[in-house]
Write a structure and sequence with these properties.
Structural class: alpha/beta
CATH superfamily of the largest domain: Glycogen Phosphorylase B
Largest sheet: 8 strands, mixed
CATH topology of the largest domain: Rossmann fold
Distance between the termini: 35 Å
CATH class of the largest domain: Alpha Beta
Number of helices: 18
CATH architecture of the largest domain: 3-Layer(aba) Sandwich
Number of domains: 2
Strand content: 15-25%
Length: about 400
Amino acid sequence: MTARRLRVLVVHTGLHLREVESYEIYETVAGLAAAAATEDVVLQATDGRHLYDARRGVDGELEYVRCGSVLDALRRRYDVAHVHMVLPQTHLLLAFLLRVRGVPVVLSPMSMLGDDFGGGSWFRHRRPALLRVKPHAVRLMGVLWRLLAAAFVVQSAEEARLAHLPRQQVALLPLPAPRTPLADAVLDVSRPAGGEEHGPLAFVSRLDTWRKGLDRLCAWLETHAEELPRPAAVLYAPEDGSPRPDVLPALVEQGLLRWDTTSRGADLVRELERARGVVLLSRWDGQPRVLREAALLGIPTMSTPASHFTEVVQALGSGVLVQDADDPHEVHRAFCELAGQPRDAAAARRLFHRDGVGRSLLLLLRHVAAKQPVDVDHYRAFTTVAGS
């Protein structure tokens, strides 16, 4: 007797087709589509408006073929649904309706949103009227999370802790390689990264000073100015008016820091190839793209537990986590350790490969559909399944 085909629904409400291609969700679904094609799985997706057949096209890229309305998705029978958490109010409603239909639901919160929403800070950014009901709303949403989801897919143990997720229902999976100009250029680089003996440290920041820890970087450069090369760091960030430390211009004038606002794509790859490491001293992050881009080049990374990069560092076997990034001496010790680490771009490309991501996620969905425990080492599954 042959086994019944597994029917999977992927939900990414709020990210419609023209937008989803710039997110890791595209790579995740593309990997799922590849796995579904080889493992006799029916894969469909809904963006909250329409229902699509999701499959690999003739060029190997993800192809959405419209086959109904969102109501059709609720009328059909699925063995399991994978919901990418972007809009809590919409996603929880869909998750509820799917569970009413008897479909197990796997929630995949976007990392920072998972922290903000699960921890309650999501309500701080809403209208004042919501603040009055915040404690009750947070408790209610937390109950709904636990009632509606058969499993949660997160990127790190730190994310699970901050989002108050039930440990027995959590599976840790890294995100696939992001679809960015840099990542596309990285994948075209066949030679390993060089890393000059006195090359600078490459640092990338696109957000505010405090959240990304740019003030921590400046404190390290100031404290150890006599021991560091010129430039010790390259800051890739637009001059967009975001708050910056007052000491930043002085560091640039001294030659300790070079501020690059123009390098993109292949030019940025060449800059990164010269670097001995990439550092992000974030206070709050969600497995940021810059660290994955660096890993794809084989460049060791230095970050904090708040970057949700701990499991990635362990899986790659390289990188340094700074526990107290407010201590410039600890940052310096970590950089000295980082500068001597080996490079292995192949390991990262296996870890972040879309097909490996898709097969590992499909393994989880099979477990949930069969009502089996979700305790699977997906970081090991990624590198094993993806091949080279």
